[in-house]
Design goal:
Structural class: mainly alpha
Strand order of the largest sheet: 1-2
CATH class: Mainly Alpha
CATH topology: Cytochrome Bc1 Complex, Chain D, domain 2
Strand content: under 5%
Shape: globular
Order of helices and strands: HHEEHHH
Oligomer: single chain
């Protein structure tokens, strides 16, 4: 179970990296402006990405999302250089709180 969850979170940022994230502060805003929905499905964000794991099915917890977004791995790039620590925490909290809820 741990490997599929890691792969899901790993795919969170594939295709992400919009340059318009500097003003994003809420987790929802970060998810949308960073382009996470280009790869991931998350109903609460209106995202239907098919490249990365479906977050509504995997339902990752916040620490896993935060670690994966920060450090990357498993095909996902690290975002510690492009997102602030507060933005990473906000998107991790948003994903973990909303995945599988819609």
């Amino acid at each position: 179970m741990r490997l599929p969850l890691l792969l899901v979170v790993a795919a969170l940022a594939v295709g992400c990296g919009s340059k318009t994230t500097s003003n994003a502060s809420s987790g929802s805003d970060v998810f949308k402006t960073a382009g996470c929905g280009n790869c991931h499905t998350l109903a609460s964000a209106g995202a239907n990405g098919r490249v990365g794991p479906d977050l509504d099915q995997v339902k990752p917890d916040a620490p896993l999302v935060e670690r994966q977004v920060t450090n990357g791995g498993g095909g996902m790039p690290a975002f510690k250089a492009t997102l602030s620590a507060a933005q990473i925490k906000a998107v991790a909290d948003y994903v973990s709180s909303n995945a599988g809820k819609s």
